[in-house]
From TrEMBL:
<comment type="function">
    <text>Acetylates the N-terminal alanine of ribosomal protein bS18.</text>
</comment>
<keyword id="KW-0808">Transferase</keyword>
<dbReference type="Pfam" id="PF00583">
    <property type="entry name" value="Acetyltransf_1"/>
</dbReference>
<dbReference type="GO" id="GO:0005737">
    <property type="term" value="C:cytoplasm"/>
</dbReference>
<keyword id="KW-0012">Acyltransferase</keyword>
<comment type="similarity">
    <text>Belongs to the acetyltransferase family. RimI subfamily.</text>
</comment>
<feature type="domain" description="N-acetyltransferase">
    <location>
        <begin position="1"/>
        <end position="150"/>
    </location>
</feature>
<dbReference type="GO" id="GO:0008999">
    <property type="term" value="F:protein-N-terminal-alanine acetyltransferase activity"/>
</dbReference>
<dbReference type="InterPro" id="IPR016181">
    <property type="entry name" value="Acyl_CoA_acyltransferase"/>
</dbReference>
<dbReference type="InterPro" id="IPR006464">
    <property type="entry name" value="AcTrfase_RimI/Ard1"/>
</dbReference>
<keyword id="KW-0963">Cytoplasm</keyword>
<dbReference type="InterPro" id="IPR000182">
    <property type="entry name" value="GNAT_dom"/>
</dbReference>
<protein>
    <recommendedName>
        <fullName>[Ribosomal protein bS18]-alanine N-acetyltransferase</fullName>
        <ecNumber>2.3.1.266</ecNumber>
    </recommendedName>
</protein>
Length: 150
């Protein structure tokens, strides 16, 4: 089941810890945020949580300004990958953004993350640019991708 962060009956501190642990396991280079940064991000990013009972199997966070949105983070537990969770999270996001009249959706992905890049291409994202040395630990280029929603 996919719910918003606000629909969860769990405390924000508990959610920040769970999301941090999930991201730390899921990302090849560890979590992009600390627990404290996740907690702070709840104020300005919208979160979708893929829940199985009380366990978070995946999450997606995004921001929206006017008619454009950006996926900030998306992660799925390693043992739950290849079960369509990421795709379901994105499709819920597409529907929410279309209802809000968003036209474009952006994201960045590590240049070396071929699995994610192919996944996003299958979802209709196209490469629009590169950001040199965008990522750290290790230093790597980001591929900026875009999807038209309407």
């Amino acid at each position: 089941m996919i719910i918003s962060l606000d629909e969860s009956n769990l405390t924000k501190e508990f959610l920040a810890e769970k999301i941090y642990n999930l991201a730390n396991e899921s990302f090849a280079t560890a979590s992009p945020y600390t627990k404290e940064q996740f907690l702070h991000s709840f104020k300005y990013e919208t979160y979708l949580l893929y829940m199985d009972k009380e366990e978070i199997l995946g999450f997606l966070s995004y921001t929206k300004v006017l008619d454009e949105a950006e996926v900030v983070n998306i992660a799925v537990l390693n043992q739950a990958k290849s079960k369509g969770i990421g795709k379901q999270l994105l499709h819920v996001l597409y529907n929410e953004l279309k209802n809000e009249q968003a036209v474009l959706l952006f994201l960045e992905v590590r240049e070396s993350n071929e699995i994610a890049r192919v996944f996003y291409e299958k979802e209709g994202f196209i490469k629009i640019s590169e950001r040199k040395n965008y990522y750290h630990s290790p230093v790597e280029n980001a591929i900026v991708m875009q999807k038209k929603l309407l």
